[in-house]
Amino acid sequence: MKSAFRVMLNALKTDIPSRFSHLREQGRLKIGIANTVMADEKLEEFKEEMKKNFPDMELVYFPLTMSIGTHVGSGALGIGAMRSR
Question: 29-35 and 77-83: which strand pairing?
């Protein structure tokens, strides 16, 4: 697992039970992953790691647009938590 992903994952592990606990209790919190072009196998590894660390939460996926990819390059990845309705 890449170190940047590990840092983001640890931040989520801290934020979800603290900053976002009220949303999680209401069933209004999801986790997400977004990326620019990368090998399908690598993306699946990241998704599986997210599911393993947050097994009771819905994982949503957002492919980033080409305009973002132009600026950040291929292989960019971001994870986070989001409020749902």
Answer: antiparallel
**Domain containing residue 23:** 3-83
Which amino acid type is present at position 47?
K
The enclosing domain of 60 has a CATH number of 3.30.1180.10
- Residue 18, classified by CB atoms within 10 Å of its CB into exposed (0-12), middle (13-18) or buried (19+), is exposed
Q: Domain count of the chain?
A: 1
pTM for this predicted structure = 0.90
Distance CA 7, CA 21 (A): 20
Instruction: List the chain pLDDT tens, one digit each, 85 residues.
Output: 589 999 999 999 999 999 999 999 999 999 999 999 999 999 999 999 999 999 999 999 999 998 998 999 999 999 999 999 8
